[in-house]
Design goal:
The protein is of the alpha/beta class and about 250 residues long. It has ten helices and six strands; from the N terminus they run ααααβββαβββααααα. It has helices at about 5-30, 35, 40-45, 55-90, 125-140, 175-180, 185-190, 190-195, 200-225, 235-240; strands at about 90-95, 100-105, 110-115, 150-155, 165, 170. A hairpin with a 4-residue loop joins β5 and β6. The chain is elongated and about 75 Å long.
Amino acid sequence: MNTLDLASVYEFVNENIDSFHENRIRTIQNLKLKQILKRKNPYLFKAKNINSAPELVSSVMEAFLSSSEEGLFGGFLEALAIFVNEMTCSGQKSSAPGIDLEFNRDNIRYIVAIKSGTNWGNSSQQRALRENFRAAIKILRQSRHVTHVQAVLGMCYGKSKDVDTGEYLKFCGQSFWTFISGESNLYIDIVEPLGYEAQKRNEFFLQEKTGTYNRLVGEFIKEFCYESGQINWPKLVSFNSGNMKSLT
């Protein structure tokens, strides 16, 4: 394993964190009211006695943005992990379905699926991961240059014990970053460069967010409120869940 150059890691983060912020801003600029209303449960809002248009829009907007940002940042962390491993183990982005990283160390071919955190998928997605591991292992074992293949599920953050499931190893948080880099403090070292110009970028994001929020509230009142200003719940529920059409 080669020694990790932290200066190069910092440079990579500074250069590539821009894409996360740009995508984050693009998401908020392109947000559509009906896009986010379709994804949320209108019955829940009524049960919670949310009768204010600004409060309802804020709730659905925040939930959508939180999910979106988690996905965007997960992509950034995956790219960072591959970059780190490329320096330490000559790792590379995998071309196998569902596998993110491949590298050799101590005569073992590691195939790694990278997830953001511990709550990364439901039972169907976890089953698909196991199938992807089996398929990749089967192909690699056909090569005479590969004698031992080890599947790994790596999670970039979270606190969990290392686990050998019998089909793959599972590393989380500090253990994962140490596994791909050989540096036990890397999970802490990468925090500082993540804040590069974060305040300036976040100020612009908040300006865009406020503008989008005001726009969506206006659209919601026009589309889903009575002239009195009260929410037209039948119309909102019908938009979200109505799908029965006459067969005659």
